[in-house]
Structures are given as structure tokens and as C-alpha cells.
Amino acid sequence: MNAQELRDMTPDQLRDKLAELKKESFNLRFQQATGQLENPALIRIARRNAARVKTILNQKAAIAATAE
After folding, report:
1. d(CA 49, CA 31)
2. Which end of the chain has fewer CB within 10 Å, C or N?
């Protein structure tokens, strides 16, 4: 997932994507705690993707606030 794909989404779609990423992050942490996680780098990737979504949501909110 790259930033341009996220910028093309609506804020509602971004919030849904963020919820999905948080759920994925939880599942990965749970797998790590039980010793079932084969690739621990996936945790960092999920966390960074969530940060990307949050950043773009904040950018869109700032643009909307200045446009009013």
C-alpha cells in the first residue's frame, strides 16, 4: 500500500482501513506472544501502514479546516 492509493480514498474508507490495520496488528501481536509468528517484520509493516493512514487522515482534516 502506498501513500498515493491512500490519498485517493475518502476519509470514511481511511477510517475503515485503519480499523482493519489495527485488527491485523492485534492478531500479529497475539501470534507473536503464542510463538506462532513466523515473520516478525510483519508487525512493523502493519504499524507503519497504520501510521500512514493516520497521517493522511490528519492531512485531509487540516485541508478541510483551512478550506472553511
Report:
1. 19
2. C
